[in-house]
Amino acid sequence: MPSPLSPSETRALLDRLGHNPIKKLGQNFLIDGNIVRKSLELAKVSAGDSIVEIGPGLGTLTRALLDSGAYVYSIEKDKRLANHISSLIPEYGGRLHLIQGDALDHPLANIPPAVERFKIVANLPYAISTPWMDAVIHGPAPKSMTLMLQKEAAQRYVAVPGTKQFGSISIFLQAAYRTVQAWNVASSCFYPKPDVGSQLLHLESKTNSYAFPEEDRYLIRGLFSQRRKQIGSLLRKSDSPRAMEWLKRLDSLGIEANARSEQIDVDRWIQLSSGHGR
Ligand code: SAM
């Protein structure tokens, strides 16, 4: 695998493109070969795989994916960087697909629906990670996701009940994916260095994955917005048409009406939503 650009090569390329990294777009580019290699290893990328990449940036991860023989479907918001990435298209003979746009509008970079098995490998722009993740979990399911994330976000995604990080996104994600690895990544692996900690998370789709319907996600988000209050009284006051049904189910699922949302585990939330165990 070719080495990623060193810090001086990254600066030189940015100079050549006349580009200053834009903080609000989370432009912290990978400059560490071990992390690029680790991401591809965790994702078990092999020739012929279809990969969605969010924010290819200067193309470090993109090139490594393409050099492994994968098909890459990518989306880049920054016009100048998208132009740079599009210059790689002829070199990779039809295996690189790029759209210029916002990953919140196209969470899977417009990968054709006919491609049923795909993985996501991305060094995400940290500001969009949670709404993007929410959209991905509730769309066509990737087989795995290998994601560079802000450490606090990664900790929320894999949080266990009874902790302050445990929330609606932990439930939605863990109902569908299991965490295989979480690696702390030093800020020196990026140029420029991010002000926050980073973690590389590898998630694999569960065989018995569950996707919460939109009305149940709305209800769960509402319950967690008052996470210290008792679930029974919140359900009684809720404007959700599902709340009365859930209230009746509490007892048969062994959930105390005075329990707090943050104490209820993912399987119980699935049972509340689906009406049965699994
Ligand atoms: N993949 C490159 C790497 O690893 O060096 C760059 C990763 S950088 C953390 C995030 C990239 O996402 C930047 O190129 C940025 O312009 C792009 N980006 C930011 N917000 C975006 C959005 N809403 N949709 C698509 N791309 C976005």
Summarize the structure.
Helices cover 35% and strands 18% of the residues. It is of the alpha/beta class and 278 residues long.
Give an overview in words.
With 278 residues, this protein is α/β, with parallel strands linked by helices. The chain has two domains: 7-205, Rossmann fold, CATH 3.40.50; 214-274, Helicase, Ruva Protein, domain 3 (Orthogonal Bundle). The protein is 35% helix and 18% strand. The protein has helices at 7-17, 33-42, 60-67, 79-86, 129-137, 151-157, 168-174, 214-225, 231-237, 243-252, 266-274, and strands spanning 29-30, 50-54, 71-76, 96-100, 119-123, 144-150, 177-185, 190-191, 198-205. Helix 3 (60-67) links the parallel strand 2 and strand 3. The longest helix is centred in the C-terminal third of the chain and has 12 residues, at 214-225. The radius of gyration is 20 Å and the shape is elongated. The structure holds S-adenosylmethionine. S-adenosylmethionine binds at residues 25-30, 54-58, 60-61, 75-78, 81, 102-104, 123, 125, 128.
List keywords for this structure.
278 residues; alpha/beta; Rossmann fold; Helicase, Ruva Protein, domain 3; binds S-adenosylmethionine
Chain-wise SSE layout:
Blueprint: H1 7-17, E1 29-30, H2 33-42, E2 50-54, H3 60-67, E3 71-76, H4 79-86, E4 96-100, E5 119-123, H5 129-137, E6 144-150, H6 151-157, H7 168-174, E7 177-185, E8 190-191, E9 198-205, H8 214-225, H9 231-237, H10 243-252, H11 266-274
The protein binds S-adenosylmethionine.
S-adenosylmethionine is lined by residues 25-30, 54-58, 60-61, 75-78, 81, 102-104, 123, 125, 128.
